[in-house]
Amino acid sequence: MAAVRRPRVTSTDVARASGFSRQLVGFVLNNTPGQSIPESTRAKVLRAAEELGYVPHGPAQALRRGRGRTVLLAIPDLPQGGTMGDMIEVLADELAAEGLTLVTYLLGAEHRSPREVAAALAPVAVVGFLPFSEAEIATFTASGAAVVLPQPGTRFGSNLEEVMRLLGEMQVEYLAGRGHRRIVFAAPDDPRSAGLSAGRYEGARQAAERRGLPSVERYVVPSDGADEAVRAWRAGRHPITAVACHGDEVAFAVLAAARTAGLRIPEELAVIGADELSIARYAEPPLTTISIDGRSSGVVLARTLVDLLADRTPPPFDIQDGITLVPRASA
Prior knowledge:
single chain; four-stranded parallel sheet; LacI family DNA-binding transcriptional regulator; 434 Repressor (Amino-terminal Domain); Rossmann fold; 10 strands; Lambda_DNA-bd_dom_sf; DNA binding
């Protein structure tokens, strides 16, 4: 049986329960300045509001203030890791310190469109990991958003595509610096990661091209293991000597398959991951990977938002900030 949806409690309900006029109740609930209201009266109104479960209506309050206090974070439908969790946690904390509330919206998994979400929340700012379409930007702006990130043509709110390409570039640059010329890119078979993996592969391919290396091929590693892939890489007259993996999970599978095949790591096959899971250091051998400081990214993003909302120019943002290669025994 479907749940019965309770009607939203309004300030009119609070006025009726407290016995005061709607105007006076509005002054109390909105903390309107310049009003001389006895503390006993204020306390009675607030007590009635609490007992009724009154919650301020976001869009209405945004209209009264001329600007909302909600920041909408649009998250792509992709596997959630510790890096993103750290970033969201810090972003929420930093914005809260400025009187702003972060609300997350999972793209592709919500039943409401971005237009409906924006209309309901009236966000003062909207942040995405990927660039928004012109239609989406227009929708957010019409709903009252003063800032939409990432901003096309600027370094404000650097988008996920740029970061993904950078990771692939860093992997190949490191492997090439260690003397490897025949490198392969190992991608996961999770369709949710396809977009991210394509960006990392593109970065790896471009880095190899700049270095004058043989073309980096892309292989999808199935979830049941990388044994077949490792055998294919090592076959022939010119075997693959290094693997740039989309992430640490894929790298663990490649390491296990290499050990099963009796390969010496990194002498015969070097392996590098990305995203630095906490268990990477305990792999056999310990996994070389790339660390992304989600907490640092959260701080930078929050400060960028606050500056833009205050009509200040944020300090220059370097896409490589917080991204560090962690060398270990696997490569």
